[in-house]
């Protein structure tokens, strides 16, 4: 069964907004501090949960393990993260944000937050924000249940 015209319009607008927002965030981060959006996502995840296992980081980001591994290698080369072995099992690789990673995140966050706020939230009422929040939470829950 096909989407209705309204559903199709909403779906296409969502895809367009998502792609353009990702591109804008990448441009802003590169211009402000030389980070990619992927760098920023990893740093935010590690700031919230320092020393997490590499596979857990991949799950939190929704990335395939090969993408996580390649991204972490690039970030390790730039001293943004470190990957020491876990204390209790050397087969488990943990990931930690470094001092340079924390500094980069501190530089990046204000511009990133300003962009997201300007694009998504500045013209949204509290009622709209609540409705969008419920809609997104429901979609995430349904995706998690299907996975």
Concise account of the structure shown:
The protein is mostly helical. The chain has helices at 5-33, 37-48, 54-61, 65-77, 99-121, 126-146; strands at 52-53, 81-82, 94-97.
Explain this structure to me?
InterPro entries: HTH_MarR-typ, MarR/SlyA-like, WH-like_DNA-bd_sf, WH_DNA-bd_sf. Pfam families: MarR_2. One of its GO terms (biological process) is response to stress. Keywords: DNA-binding. This is DNA-binding MarR family transcriptional regulator. By secondary structure, this protein is mainly alpha-helical. The chain has a single domain, classed as Winged helix-like DNA-binding domain superfamily/Winged helix DNA-binding domain (Arc Repressor Mutant, subunit A, Orthogonal Bundle), CATH 1.10.10. It is 72% helix and 5% strand. It has helices at 5-33, 37-48, 54-61, 65-77, 99-121, 126-146, and strands at 52-53, 81-82, 94-97. The longest helix is centred in the first third of the chain and has 29 residues, at 5-33. The protein is globular, with a radius of gyration of 18 Å. The chain starts with a helix and ends with a helix.
């Amino acid at each position: 069964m096909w989407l209705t015209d309204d559903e199709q319009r909403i779906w296409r607008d969502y895809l367009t907004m998502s792609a353009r927002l990702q591109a804008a965030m990448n441009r802003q981060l590169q211009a402000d501090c030389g980070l990619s959006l992927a760098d920023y996502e990893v740093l935010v995840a590690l700031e919230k949960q320092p020393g997490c296992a590499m596979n857990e980081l991949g799950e939190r980001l929704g990335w395939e393990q090969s993408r996580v591994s390649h991204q972490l290698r690039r970030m390790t080369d730039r001293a943004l993260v470190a990957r020491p072995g876990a204390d209790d099992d050397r087969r488990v690789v943990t990931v930690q944000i470094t001092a340079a990673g924390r500094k980069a995140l501190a530089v990046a966050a204000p511009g990133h937050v300003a962009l997201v706020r300007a694009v998504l939230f500045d013209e949204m009422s509290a009622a709209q924000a609540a409705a969008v929040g419920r809609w997104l939470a429901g979609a995430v829950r349904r995706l998690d249940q299907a996975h």
